[in-house]
């Protein structure tokens, strides 16, 4: 019941906003090539759903591949940073610097290096995913208290045993926090990669439709892209609850 209420409130608010937008666009006679009516967007979504679903599947595959790469890279980097102060001093500033470079500046290079297939989009998604995962994992690995560390030292635990028995289990909630941020950024990264150069995907659909001033198709792709992001976010939350429940 609580879960239903949590979803019901934003859904009602969304419907009210859509109704207000629909009413304004009709009364103001705004052309569809400037701002399409929500009813036209959903009509296009249902009419073109089979084709759009195929493009959505491509975007999902690219996002999941980018998530896998980004999470693996983030976990490895976090472990290196926590284990070695030298690595931390050398890598942490560079990791932060990567986030200062606009993805649009890097995405064309990734297309040149990896081609127009899924891997250039997966690489773009991974670039956005690995940072929150790395930062979250580092914070999680460092979250155990000094008392907990002193206890293991008193038992003469090695550095590897401390990492395995204390730091890694403590890092799981922070890892999932970073992953929940990363999964939404991964969808954005895959879409940006499709904007730069692609043959399939929802980003590709948006670019093609925008060039033809078919904004109702652009918004239909955005609605489906939002659904993809929510679905992946929900899957991460389900996995998180199962993992944390098993830990508890």
Summarize the structure.
85% of the residues lie in helices and 0% in strands. By secondary structure, it is mainly α.
Q: Which properties best describe this structure?
A:
single chain, 248 residues, mainly alpha, MetI-like fold, 10 helices, elongated
How would you summarize the topology of this molecule?
Elements: H1 2-28, H2 38-47, H3 49-83, H4 85-98, H5 103-114, H6 118-141, H7 146-154, H8 159-196, H9 202-211, H10 215-247
Describe this structure in words.
- With 248 residues, the protein is mostly helical.
- It has two domains: 30 residues; 212 residues, MetI-like (MetI-like fold).
- It is 85% helix and 0% strand.
- The protein contains ten helices and no strands.
- Helix 5 packs across helix 8.
- The longest helix has 38 residues.
- The radius of gyration is 22 Å and the shape is elongated.
- The mean pLDDT is 88.
The residue-averaged pLDDT reads 88
Domains (count): 2
* Proportion of strand residues: under 5%
Give the CATH superfamily of the largest domain. Answer: MetI-like
Count of discrete alpha- or pi-helical segments spanning 4 or more residues: 10
Morphology call? elongated
